[in-house]
Amino acid sequence: MNKHRLLCAASAYIMHEFNNQTIERLRNTRFFKLILPPFSNFLRNNVQKEIEKDHAVIFAAYQAYDMRMPPGEDELRALLQQAQEIDRKFIRQAHMLPVSIHIPYEDIEDIRRERMRHLLENCYRLFLLWEQKPRLRKAVQTLFDRNQFNSFILRVLMLYVSETRILSNSIKLPHRLGFARDLVLHTITSAMQTVAAEVAAECTRIIYGRT
User: Fold this and answer.
1) Which residues does 138 contact at the CB level (< 8 Å), separation at least 6?
2) Quick check: pTM over 0.70?
3) Number of Cβ atoms within 10 Å of the Cβ of 121
4) Contacts of 81-87 spanning 24+ positions with Cβ under 8 A
5) pLDDT tens profile 47-100
6) Distances (CA, A) of 82 to 60, 141, 159, 190
7) Pairwise CA distance, residues 70 & 97, whole Å
8) How do the domains of the chain map onto residue ranges?
9) N or C, where is the chain less crowded by C-beta within 10 Å?
10) How far apart are CA 187 and CA 88, in angstroms?
11) DSSP structural state of residue 164
């Protein structure tokens, strides 16, 4: 398998695990019936949107590696523009849900840029190291020590949580859910933050083994 496709598959696995575990945690909340009907599809569509963006970032890192030119601001600007195209598709899908979504780019662009830069630069470094190592796991272990890798995955996920929280705040809920808006969004954010730490720890155990 092409190296960038393998990394995309690993990235998608992490994001799907994160989303599935978040939804499973929400099932155990007292507001399950309020939260999941309008939000489970929203969360699934939102994470798929993020996977598409991550794949674009990974491919940009691979192209930069192939040309032996470290990625910079030009790549980030192109990726941010591409992200808005993905957003438009997401909004069209969201019209089928009982919510109305407006994406506040002025509020999320700095977070989005930081997440993309973090992923872009580290994927570029990983591709360079991967030349010298036969397997992805060995390349990752060379690039990061155990704590650094955990912090890397956690930061990627927490920046996604921050962007999702801002996006969720822009959602217009049906009137019957309006009274519970703040509690619903707090519950979702809290679940995502807890799961982010758990998934980062799980990914670290996969790469480095149990301590």
Assistant:
1) none
2) yes
3) 17
4) 82/53, 82/56, 83/53, 83/56, 83/112, 83/116, 86/49, 86/52, 86/53, 86/56, 87/49
5) 898 999 999 999 999 999 999 999 999 999 999 999 998 988 877 766 545 555
6) 11, 31, 18, 29
7) 41
8) 3-208
9) C
10) 27
11) H
